[in-house]
Each structure stands twice: as structure tokens, then as C-alpha cells.
Amino acid sequence: MSGSAGPAASPVEPTRIRKRRDFLRAASRGKRAARPGLVLQAVPGDPAQLRLGFTVTKKVGNAVVRNRARRRLKEAARLALREAAPPGWDLVLIGRDATPKRPFALLVDDLRGALRQAGVLR
């Protein structure tokens, strides 16, 4: 169709944080926001991209429980950042004891609230 106005502005597609030094940078210099279902660490990063990291410690449970918590955090991030993914941030989501059991809608609300508290979303 030649009458289209061009591609719509698409949200930033997040990339993954995988290196230990990036997790440590978020922990030492990032803003923290704790909620019942998760802890968010947010640090300004490359202005052109959004990076996400996920971690769940052994205190949360065995490998099955930790993997479930991590999958739930990933999906919550996908939903919460779908429309308003702000470039220029490195975000680390840390699972808590409540992450695997918390109702999913509340987990997504926890993430949205933490993003606002840390100044990532307005």
C-alpha cells in the first residue's frame, strides 16, 4: 500500500545482560526498588538500547523453583515493558522467595511499581 505513513514507532527490543561485571555494576551503582515479588536494580546504560538481566539465588529454592521464578520474571518484564520500553537503561530483576508463588498479575504490578520508583518509567 502506497498510502501508508511508514512503519509505526516500535518499542525498543531489549537485549540480555549476561556478563558478571554488568550485574555487579547494576548492584553497586544502580537504583534499587524492592517489591514483595522482586527487586529491581536500574542503572543508566547505552542510550540506544535497553538491557535486561535476571537472577534468582539458591535461597529461593531448588533449580526447578529458581527456573520457574526466572521464567515468570521474564514474562512479567515482557508484558510490563511491551509498550513503554525505555532505552538507555540496564535493568536487573532479582527473584525473591515470593516470586514463584505470587499471583502473576501482582508480579507484573510489582515490576511496574518498581520501574516507576527507580525512575525508569514515569
TrEMBL record:
EC number(s) per entry: 3.1.26.5
Catalytic activity line of the entry: Endonucleolytic cleavage of RNA, removing 5'-extranucleotides from tRNA precursor
Enzymatic class: hydrolase
InterPro entries membership: Ribosomal_Su5_D2-typ_SF, Ribsml_uS5_D2-typ_fold_subgr, RNase_P, RNase_P_CS
Region described as Disordered: 1-20
Keywords: Endonuclease, Hydrolase, Nuclease, RNA-binding, tRNA processing
GO terms, molecular function: ribonuclease P activity
Pfam families linked to this entry: Ribonuclease_P
SUPFAM superfamilies, per database record: Ribosomal protein S5 domain 2-like (SSF54211)
UniProt subunit comment: Consists of a catalytic RNA component (M1 or rnpB) and a protein subunit.
Described function: RNaseP catalyzes the removal of the 5'-leader sequence from pre-tRNA to produce the mature 5'-terminus. It can also cleave other RNA substrates such as 4.5S RNA. The protein component plays an auxiliary but essential role in vivo by binding to the 5'-leader sequence and broadening the substrate specificity of the ribozyme.
Family: Belongs to the RnpA family.
Name under which the protein is recorded: Ribonuclease P protein component
Species per Swiss-Prot/TrEMBL record: Roseomonas nitratireducens
Gene giving rise to this polypeptide: rnpA
